[in-house]
Design brief:
This protein is an alpha+beta fold. The protein has helices at 23-34, 48-71, 78-91, 159-177, 185-198; strands at residues 95-96, 109-112, 115-117, 132-141, 144-153, 202-203, 209-211, 218-222, 239-242, 245-247, 253-255, 263-265, 271-273, 276-280, 285-289. Strands 1, 2, 4 and 5 form a 4-stranded antiparallel sheet that branches. The model has no long low-confidence stretch (mean pLDDT 97).
């Protein structure tokens, strides 16, 4: 964090003098840093203009997932879901962020049953009665990114799987309750992990949430097995995802050796995930995409 004169324009781009804008904010950050806490860099703090553009991207992301929700059913192939997402995103004047991201070949991730995340759509994969599926949608609107995912129950799903999906949804919202300025990401992580384990499940450790907005994946990395009072300080203007992956069995996972992308549970038991994109505000939080 570079030192600037109190009478200079604020680093945030507001046009105000630093002393009237983010000076007190930076002093508070410095205090937390001296106490040994991890603090966000200025680059992680979005301006009001950037936030507005991220929100426009998020509206499209929500609309695309709404379209999936209206059409998904038994007999749908995951490639059909991919085509829906691609077509709808383009229709709104945006781009599907996953397509070609670090080599990912499709416009959406579709993860079924024991697939934890990064499932690759295929015309050979047909949704069957009793399946649970996570559809993870991400949108790039003029260089501003949004990201969220939902679980869908296909046909007559077992009570065991239904419970996993519902507890995972509750985990996400319990984590969200901890998103407040000057709280820590670890507060959220502990809330998620405590509730999951109390209900007999385990949280995936190696994969977590992430900052998002000006890039598809930004700092900070967000763990859901962390401890209250640890990890990065949350401050107004930060935007990140809450997306715990909750396994019915062990937390251990494996990566598909053939495609190098799809993550599955090591014990082949089901996994569930919900994802929202959240903004830290002056007095709490705002969900941008769901």
């Amino acid at each position: 964090m570079h030192i600037i004169n109190r009478n200079s324009p604020c680093w945030c781009g507001s046009g105000q003098k630093y002393k009237k804008c983010h000076y007190d904010f930076d002093q508070k950050l410095a205090l937390y840093k001296r106490q040994g806490h991890m603090i966000p860099d200025h680059s992680m703090i979005k301006s009001p203009e950037q936030i507005q553009k991220i929100k426009e991207s998020a509206k499209i992301n929500i609309a695309v997932l709404d379209y999936v929700a209206e059409h998904i059913k038994e007999g749908t192939t995951t490639e059909e879901i991919n085509q829906w997402v691609h077509t709808q995103t383009i229709k709104y004047g945006a781009l599907p962020a996953p397509l070609n991201f670090e080599g990912f070949p499709k416009s959406v991730c579709t993860s079924i049953n024991e697939e934890v995340c990064h499932g690759i759509p295929s015309s050979d994969i047909v949704l069957k009665d009793g399946d649970i599926i996570n559809v993870d949608c991400s949108t790039n609107l003029n260089g501003y990114f949004s990201d969220s995912s939902r679980m869908f129950l296909i046909g007559q799903v077992s009570e065991e799987k239904k419970r996993l999906v519902e507890i995972t949804r509750q985990c996400m919202y319990l984590g969200l309750e901890q998103v407040k300025p000057w709280n820590f990401l670890g507060d959220m992580g502990q809330a998620v992990n405590d509730f999951a384990t109390q209900n007999g499940y385990q949280v995936v450790r190696e994969i977590g949430g992430h900052g998002v907005g000006l890039e598809f994946h930004e700092d900070p990395w967000v763990s859901y097995v962390s401890t209250k009072g640890t990890e990065m300080l949350m401050v107004p203007g930060m935007v990140f995802t809450i997306e715990p992956m909750i396994n019915m069995g062990t937390w251990e996972i494996v990566t598909d050796e053939k495609n190098g992308w799809t993550i599955r549970t090591a014990d082949k038991k089901p996994s569930a995930q919900w994802e929202i994109q959240v903004l830290v505000t002056e007095d709490g939080h705002e969900v941008l995409a769901y």
